Amino acid sequence: MLYNWAVEHPASVACIAGIYPVCNLSSFPGIKRASGAYGLTEAQLAAQLAEHNPVDRLEPLAKARVPIFHFHGDSDTVAPLDQNSAAVAERYRHFGGDMTLGPEKTGTAWNVSLANSYRPAVDKPDPNHHLSNYGAL
């Protein structure tokens, strides 16, 4: 829902940072489980998915030049990289957006120490430096 708010208010968003974010409702939590959060039935959400699914709503953020930073390992079984952050990166860059995705290290899944390694970038980003300076790809 963070992305959905941001898409509707891009002028109010300086940047987006995500740690193993869910960006594709089809992958997690699934249409059936997500439908209640949107006040819709499963069938209604399936029919309107492009209107609510973060991965499908990126163009306004790219046009507003909102930078995105995700870190997401390739072994995440809850929100798989290819269906979430990697899909966002591909689509966002297609629209001309600036997105940093890292670290895509083989065999990594969500863990606290990995998340904490990016605390400097999330807690106090340096507006004069690209997030890749923090070790992201």
Polypeptide structure, described:
With 137 residues, the chain is mainly alpha-helical. The chain has one domain: 3-Layer(aba) Sandwich (Rossmann fold), CATH 3.40.50.1820. The chain is 34% helix and 8% strand. It is built from eight helices and three strands, in the order αβααααβαβαα. The protein has helices at residues 2-8, 31-35, 42-47, 49-52, 59-63, 85-94, 112-116, 119-123; strands at residues 16-19, 68-71, 99-101. Strands 1-2-3 form a three-stranded parallel sheet, covered by helices on one side. α6 links the parallel β2 and β3. The longest helix is centred in the middle third of the chain and has 10 residues, at 85-94. The two termini are 26 Å apart. Residues 129-137 have low confidence and may be disordered.
Task: Give the topology.
Elements: H1 2-8, E1 16-19, H2 31-35, H3 42-47, H4 49-52, H5 59-63, E2 68-71, H6 85-94, E3 99-101, H7 112-116, H8 119-123
Parallel strand pairs: 1-2, 2-3
